[in-house]
Amino acid sequence: MLSAVDTVRAQAGFTLVELLVAMAAGILVMVGATTILFATTNQTQRTFTRIDATRQARTAFGYIENELHSACVNGSPPIEGVAADGTVESDANDLDFLSYTGNAANPTPVWHQLSYSATLGTLTDTSYNATYTPSQTGNDWTRGSSIATNIVLSNLPQQPSGSPVFQYFAYESVGTTGGNTYYAIPDGSNVSPLTGTTITAAPLDPAVALTAADANTTVEVIISLLVGPSSENIASSSLTSVDDSVTDSISLRLTTPPNYSSGSSSSGQYAPCQ
């Protein structure tokens, strides 16, 4: 039979020390759970932000690819270099090219100027009427009046210093053996058919305007951009490194050169639109 003292002890609650220990443990658990919740939320937000950036970049690149893949106009090289009057056309931040538009039997030639603006953070496509003047070269196109302006991409952060948005490549000789010459595009991803090693990237005029002669041989354009999300409601100023680096290479040649050519051949034989 319990005594009065035992009865009082049996009905006793937590001591002050036990209560403080329990509260401290509960606080630690809550802090840990809150930290995990914030980390998960930020990671989810970061993931959706980068997905959104990639989505809008791929949509824009698809649009550019479609335009460039219809860029063989009346035998003219698709990429425009420095014009006869010295006007700078295609360079590291601008891509000028001709393309056809419409589904008529005789589509309309259009002059496009893709321009990256670091100040506005945009990639803009301005289209113009294109005028052809017959000549001995057969490539005399001039830009006419403006037709329309379309913002292809927005929320483009400042590119890393020295990183061109547009790079231009032509076929070059990568080696000769047995009297045959091998050619490849030196864009940093192709390998030499002779050695199997990656060919060092060698873009045409990487830091200045593309000359008319180089424009005539350009068979690949690489576009590189840092792209931010399009919807501000899923972007957060507290997140860092959410901009997505996106690169796309676009071929301007219909067929690749043969595996090897005679020793008398030159890279100039493998031009765009062939």
Task: Walk me through the structure.
This protein is of the alpha+beta class. The chain has one domain (44-269). It is 24% helix and 27% strand. It has three helices and ten strands, in the order ααβββββββαβββ. It has helices spanning 4-10, 16-68, 212-217; strands at residues 94-101, 108-117, 122-132, 141-153, 166-169, 172-177, 180-184, 220-227, 244-251, 261-262. Strands 1-2-3-4 form a four-stranded antiparallel beta sheet. A three-stranded antiparallel beta sheet has the order 5-8-9, with helices on one face. The relative contact order is 0.16.
Task: Detail the topology: elements first, then pairings.
Layout: H1 4-10, H2 16-68, E1 94-101, E2 108-117, E3 122-132, E4 141-153, E5 166-169, E6 172-177, E7 180-184, H3 212-217, E8 220-227, E9 244-251, E10 261-262
Antiparallel strand pairs: 1-2, 2-3, 3-4, 5-8, 6-7, 7-10, 8-9
